[in-house]
Design a protein that fits this description.
The protein has about 280 residues and is mainly α. The chain has two domains: about 35 residues, no CATH class; about 230 residues, MetI-like fold (Orthogonal Bundle), CATH 1.10.3720. The longest helix is centred in the last third of the chain and has 35 residues. It starts with 15 loop residues before the first helix and ends with a helix. The N terminus is likely disordered.
């Protein structure tokens, strides 16, 4: 017999106010309080001292390297991640499950193991590095090595974000486009890609965020040379090892603000893409 008229359907979760209270409490403990501690530690610096620390040439180079390579790695992952998603969803072939499981390997693999493996491959005496060195291409202990490490850790975010969206795209829309005379490229560009764009934007943002904070897989292959291959997370760790906590927190605060602004812009772009897709 149906529920009595006038009574709300029972819910597994508690009421809105209680659930919101638990959510705010958990978010505060995990995110807001640690960030508040970062702000309080930075507040011990005068504006002149803060500006001197964050505008040092070594720090500025580390910022450019970290943000630039994280953006580039996320963009490359979007391109090749889309190809991998297309292969996984649209084709059936022997070893497909193994191929699919390999995508998740960076999730499960400890970052230090990934860094050591990449360094062993691309070092001047490594399996690949010994040949690239002969061509004058320095990968290990240089920015290209950092880029490869960031691509490695960011790829699963793009693939696993876009895969369910491509799987849910109605094949009838593609058949209708083909029946109207559209080529394969036109069908992909006008039917499939608009539906995938929000998911790709999300995967890009997640890969970019992971690249900014990546440490373990980068330090082994980067070489950590100031003004050459030193990333911001490593510079922060060096300041902490030197017991220069205010400088470390000042550098971290700038990274936090820039990361938040970039992720906010990417999320706005994702919302715009989603609204445009719904409008069409």
């Amino acid at each position: 017999m149906s529920a009595v008229r006038g009574f709300a359907k029972p819910s597994v979760l508690p009421g809105f106010r209680l659930a919101l209270g638990f959510s705010v409490f958990y978010l505060s403990v995990i995110v807001l309080i640690p960030l508040s501690g970062l702000l309080m530690a930075t507040a011990t610096l005068s504006p002149a001292e803060f500006w001197r620390i964050v505008t040092d040439s070594r720090v500025l180079h580390a910022y450019r390297l970290s943000f630039g390579l994280a953006l580039l790695a996320a963009a490359i992952d979007c391109v090749f991640g889309l190809i991998i998603v297309w292969v996984l969803v649209r084709y059936r072939f022997p070893g497909r499950r193994i191929f699919d499981a390999m995508v998740d390997l960076p999730f499960a693999l400890p970052t230090a193991v990934a860094g050591i493996s990449l360094a062993a491959l691309y070092a001047p005496s490594g399996w690949i590095g010994q040949y690239t060195e002969r061509l004058g291409l320095h990968i290990a202990f240089a920015p290209p090595g950092i880029l490869i490490a960031l691509m490695f850790v960011g790829l699963p975010f793009v693939v696993r974000t876009a895969e369910p969206v491509l799987r849910d795209i109605d094949a009838e829309a593609e058949e209708a486009a083909a029946s109207l005379g559209a080529t394969r490229w036109q069908t992909f560009r006008r039917v499939i890609l608009p539906s995938l764009t929000p998911a790709l934007a999300t995967g890009f943002a997640m890969a970019f965020a992971r690249g900014l904070g990546e440490y373990g897989s980068v330090i082994f292959i980067a070489g950590n040379i100031p003004h050459v291959s030193e990333i911001v997370p490593l510079l922060i760790a060096i300041k902490l090892e030197q017991y220069d906590v205010p400088a470390a927190t000042a550098i971290a605060l700038v990274m936090l603000v820039i990361s938040f602004l970039l992720l906010f812009a990417i999320n706005r772009l994702q919302d715009w893409s989603g609204s445009r897709r719904r409008a069409h």
